[in-house]
Design goal:
alpha+beta, GMP Synthetase, Chain A, domain 3, three-stranded mixed sheet, 18% strand
Length: 140
């Protein structure tokens, strides 16, 4: 009896399938999709429904236009789904739903805010390090 069908602790079959889909999509998007609208896209996560009817695919765009990349991914959905079905032997190949992953943009924005706060703190600390002005004793 094969152990491939046994559940591993902390791992579910949909999660393992999602991981495989993510790897395959990353390869396909990088090397196989020839749409010029597609920017430099990174597949950040995949979540597969328990019944494998659909997979939500999150991505970021490092270079290129977000809207154009979304359209390019949607146009390539049939091709990508077919290729996934060939690469990963599943009875049902999930329908792909592409979602832009805003976590990266939020992370960059938060990092920028932290950097600004640190710079402001340094300016305040340096300003506070100045020796106090001598009081005018009126002996002039």
């Amino acid at each position: 009896m094969s152990h491939d069908f046994l559940e591993r602790p902390g791992s579910s079959r949909p999660q393992r399938v999602a991981d495989e889909i993510q790897k395959e999509l990353a390869r396909l998007v990088q090397f196989e999709v020839k749409d010029p609208r597609l920017g430099m896209v990174t597949i950040t996560a995949v979540e597969v429904a328990r019944d494998f009817s659909y997979a939500d695919v999150w991505y970021t765009v490092l270079k290129g236009d977000r809207a154009k990349s979304q359209k390019a991914l949607e146009s390539a959905t049939g091709f990508l789904r077919t290729q996934i079905g060939r690469a990963i032997k599943l009875r049902i190949t999930p329908h792909l739903r592409f979602r832009f992953d805003e976590a990266t943009e939020r992370g960059i924005a938060m990092s920028t805010l932290i950097d600004q706060a640190r710079a402001d703190d340094k300016r305040i600390v340096h300003h506070d390090d100045q020796p106090p002005a001598k009081p005018d004793d009126g002996n002039d």
